[in-house]
Design goal:
By secondary structure, the chain is α/β, with parallel strands linked by helices. The chain is about 35% helix and about 15% strand. Strands 3-4-8-10-9-11-12-15-16-17-18 form an eleven-stranded mixed beta sheet, with helices on both faces. Strands 1-2-5 form a three-stranded mixed beta sheet, with no helix packed on it. Strand 1 and strand 2 form a beta hairpin.
């Protein structure tokens, strides 16, 4: 009797045929919404367009349009990309299981400007080879096409919606809800997880009413959960973007010259007529202005639009209106140490730090100075920036959500010797190489070239086991206690894991005094 999973699967839209790859079987490039092109640019995702016959699902779909050399490195020019990007991938064990398996849905990071589901994190083979889960990853709209809010220019004749990338994510989760049984997955045991911007997606989805019921647990790795902004702020960024775009495309722009403001109709014409690459390149210009003009803020981010996102996620966590589901959340030891050079986006320079501290009371400023000696300069400036963007908002989200649902907090401290020598330590994104078993990847080989490979891989294996346990039963292994006030027990993932109460309490208290988050 053949116990292999069938390659042919009926899904929303029609029949697809996957590809068997040893112990795993994959179906790639599956549309979960209609292509957001033409009249559907800047519109909420629409229903999948059905197809005739059997659709080949062996290859990844195109990545979202992105700049290859922006603040973050995008997909290479040899990788297909474009506006028609709303596809997902499913990977399942080749051997059929006796019952439905937990489902893990990964949301890629990249600052909402780069990345795709074909990254190693999107493939998830090391999770699926255990035979314990079905794995899903997907593309969603990025940059100006997904994370700038142009709804202020919406008209009756040409509507424009907000939070387009977030809406894509909800559409993908709805697809999973409707179709995952056909791949051996359990729609009642869906874990959504992501890293960096993908983790911001997770915390925002937890506060989005229309996402309720689409996932049963969540994992947020190095999230910046506070990076969600009021419509007034997002609207100002949209206006600034339009001016950048206008000046970059002035030769082809109909209507008045650059000395006169555009009408709404002219703005809509500009936004909808230029090609997607021009839009994302203009967004790079806006992004590069942000660190010094708006210290600590990120223009590509979800928006509190009053409808899809009715309130700030941090307010939802505080008030208990976020989805009351189990949550794993945490950060790496030194999140901010990598943000130098082209990705110098955090408040780490004296002028940016002074801007963040401008509204501090004398007492809270003194507490910050004690927690980070030498500010606004000194070696701790990078840690200040990383703690501002990632660590403290994660702590605050954990504290608030723990009052209503189980929360498990971690800190990833494992850093190969070369990274410690370079004073990067366990920085932003490092845990991904361990978690997804990428020790043989060229970058990981370089990182471990001076030693530490075995310890690094072992930490990733323990982390992955905890993630799989959480996906299956909603809790990690017993060695990892719940995070609750006042103990704040935290799993430190190190050469040898340990549990610490309230690590870096002095920093936490200083940030609590400085930043009464939304």
């Amino acid at each position: 009797m053949d116990t292999h999973r069938s390659l042919d699967v009926w899904v929303t839209g029609g029949l697809i045929r996957g590809i068997r790859e040893g112990a795993t079987t994959a179906w790639r490039g599956i549309p979960y919404a209609a292509p957001p092109v033409g009249r559907l640019r800047f519109r909420a995702p629409r229903r999948v367009l059905p197809w005739q016959g059997c659709r080949d699902a062996a290859l990844f779909g195109p990545a979202a349009t992105q700049a290859h050399k922006g603040q973050f490195t995008g997909v290479g020019p040899d990788i297909p990309s474009g506006e028609d990007c709303l596809t997902l991938n499913v990977v399942a064990p080749t051997a059929a299981s006796p019952g439905p398996l937990p489902v893990m849905v990964f949301i890629h990071g990249g600052g909402y400007s780069t990345g795709s589901s074909r990254d190693f994190s999107g493939q998830g083979r090391n999770f699926v080879r255990t035979g314990k889960v079905v794995y899903v990853s997907f593309n969603y709209r990025l940059s100006a096409l997904g994370y700038l809010d142009f709804s202020r220019y919406s008209t009756r004749l040409r509507p424009i919606e907000s939070n387009l990338g977030l809406r894509d994510q909800i559409a993908a989760l709805r697809w999973v809800r409707r179709n995952i049984r056909a791949f051996g997955g359990d729609p009642e045991r869906v874990t959504v997880f992501g890293e960096s911007a993908g983790a911001n997606s997770v915390t925002t989805l937890m506060a989005t009413p229309s996402a309720r019921g689409l996932f049963a647990r969540a994992i947020a790795q190095s999230a910046p959960p506070n990076a969600v902004y009021p419509r007034s702020v997002a609207s100002a960024w949209a206006e600034e973007f339009v001016e950048i775009l206008r000046r970059r495309t002035a030769d082809g722009l109909p209507g008045p010259n650059l000395e006169h403001p555009l009408t709404v109709a002219q703005t809509v014409h500009l936004l909808t007529r230029v090609d997607a690459t021009t839009l994302v390149n203009a967004a790079v210009v806006l992004q590069t202005r942000m660190p010094d003009e708006y210290p600590g803020l990120f223009c590509l981010a979800p928006v509190i639009d009053g409808r899809l996102v009715p309130r700030h996620p941090m307010s939802a966590f505080r008030g208990g209106t976020a989805h009351r589901i189990p949550l794993i959340i945490g950060t790496n030891d030194r999140e901010g140490s990598i943000f130098r050079g082209r990705i110098d986006i955090l408040p780490r320079t004296p002028s940016r730090i002074d801007a963040v501290l401008a509204r501090a009371t004398p007492e809270s400023r003194a507490m910050i100075s004690r927690a980070y000696p030498g500010l606004p300069g000194g070696p701790l400036a990078l840690d200040f920036g990383g703690d501002y963007a990632f660590w403290y908002p994660c702590v605050a989200a954990a504290e608030r959500h723990a009052r209503y649902a189980p929360v498990y907090f971690y800190r990833f401290d494992v850093a190969p010797r070369l990274l410690r020598w370079a004073r990067l330590d366990a920085t932003h994104g490092l845990e991904m190489f361990a978690l997804f078993e990428q020790a043989d990847a060229p970058l990981a080989r370089t990182m471990t070239s001076l030693g530490g490979r075995k310890v690094f891989s072992s930490a990733g294996e323990r982390m992955r086991d905890a993630w799989l346990s959480f996906a299956a039963v909603g809790a990690p292994p017993e060695r990892w206690p719940r995070y609750e006030e006042p103990e704040r027990l935290t799993l430190i993932i190190a050469d040898r894991d340990r549990v610490e109460p309230d690590p870096r309490a002095e920093r936490r208290q200083a940030w609590t005094a400085l930043l009464p988050l939304a």
